User: What shape does this take?
Amino acid sequence: MSRSARTCRALLAILMIVSPVAAGAWGRQGHDMVARLAVDLLTRTEKEANTRFWRFNRYDLGYFSNVPDLVFRMRPEEAKQFEPPVHYVDLDNLLAPEQAATLPLDAQQVFSCFGGKPARISDGPLDVWNNGVLIWRAQQLYDELIRLMANAKQKEGGDPGAAAQQAAYAQLVRRTAEVAGFLSHYVADAAMPYHACTDYDGWEAQNGGVHKFFETDLLDELGPRFEDSVLALAESRREGILAHLRELRNEPAAFPRDLVLALLTDSLRNKPEVERLDKEAAVLEKSVRTDEEKTAAARRPAAEVVERFVPILRERLATGVVVLAEVWRQAWASAQRPVLRDAKYPEFRPEPEYIVLRPEMLWKEGQACSWPARKP
Assistant: This one.
């Protein structure tokens, strides 16, 4: 294992100890798994000579996939203002589950057509920003990844002996790994059923606490064989998974928003199955939430029931792996497949700089709704 890989592994272990638990899809192990297995899937479907960047940065990408939860959420300015809504979209608060895949992909239209209107589930008028903007976070980071790779591609044709040229190129390679890891986090979030629904922790269904139980407690009970089975499923069903998602939404000009919306829709449709399994296999006493009391559901230990959840855990994680590998692949192709030749030991920064997404970057007041389903 490289020095960079050992460093990021050690830092991840430290952050797992000192960071408070937050509701982030898949927990630390799950996000790390999705990123690393997406590298494996990508390198198996591409010419090996062209995949050095992905292979040499496999463990770094796993680390950076956890940065949005373990680093960005710990910074007060990001955690309080901008970071939480970019991890989810409460699709069922916008549209009925069977209509979720028809959501406009233009953020301006979502704000104009849904903002201030009665929400389907939550009380009061809909606040689009706090209802979740994961789709457009993924687009933002995808565009930035292409920009970085395209700049690296241009510099690969320059003078390799020039010190300034080498330094600028190395910085691009380093930042490419960071942003690819950030993007991994949000794509994996979209594969988790409780990141696509209003009842994100099961309190309305009286199985409160299900979010962490499903994404972290159960996953912590599974070892390397489970990880191998996730990759095997992703590899064997890659084309079928992509075809299924493209049946839900397929607008190549709006990639990756179309694929991420399809993934969120698929996750929302899997939420009832997770809820059923939780209530049948794990819950001993229902959760209670009143003005005076909030008590999570009492459950059997995760180790006792994990086998009941293995099929859906494997399926959701494998779907996330397939989508992430496809998003990375298309970004790389759009940038003309730079070699990223200094990929083996790029400078490693445990706390990379933040890329902010603000409401005003998605919506400008005064633009009319033109989505047919929501025209006055």
Q: What stands out?
A: Confidence is low (pLDDT under 50) at residues 14-22.
